[in-house]
From TrEMBL:
Species whose genome carries this gene: Streptomyces himalayensis subsp. aureolus
Molecular function per GO: anti-sigma factor antagonist activity
Matches recorded under InterPro entries: Anti-sigma_ant, STAS_dom, STAS_dom_sf
Stated family: Belongs to the anti-sigma-factor antagonist family.
Coiled coil: none
Ranges annotated as spanning the membrane: none
Pfam families: STAS
Designated name of the protein: Anti-sigma factor antagonist
Location of the STAS domain: 14-124
Annotated NCBIfam families: ant_ant_sig
Length: 130
């Protein structure tokens, strides 16, 4: 499988919509797209991971490196993942795997997570709880 990264702009936010698998082979594409956005002077970044159905440690590494890069330039990073269900379990469908992996590794709390693009780019909306 491959990884696809589409870029959009919503106000001051760059939204990178990611779909497919984030693994050792494909994750460098996302890393490069993040670096390109920052090199272009963009400091407010949303990673829409709702269509990612597999993420290994390489993908998690890219997310953590992205967080570090954005923080180093006083930027803002938000992730879009499915909302957790009332029982605390992840929703099914795209992005649920990423949510589970981040939670299992104990790093989901490092990220501001939103259920959709509209809330991610809304400065009045708060993130989902970890």
């Amino acid at each position: 499988m491959t990884l696809s990264v589409r870029e959009g702009v919503k106000g001051e936010w760059v939204v990178l919509s990611v779909s497919g698998e984030m693994d050792l082979v494909t994750s460098p594409l996302l890393r490069q797209r993040v670096h390109d956005a920052v090199a272009d002077g963009r400091r407010s970044l949303v990673l829409d991971l709702s269509e990612v159905f597999f993420c290994d440690s390489s993908g998690v590494g890219v997310l953590i490196a992205t967080r570090r890069l954005i923080r180093s330039c006083q930027g803002r990073l938000r992730l879009i993942l499915p909302a957790q269900g009332a029982d605390g379990g992840s929703a099914s469908g795209g992005g649920a795997h990423v949510n589970k992996v981040l939670a299992a590794l104990g790093v989901r709390r490092l990220f501001d997570v939103y259920p959709d693009a509209a809330s991610a780019v809304d400065d009045e909306a708060g993130p989902l709880s970890a």
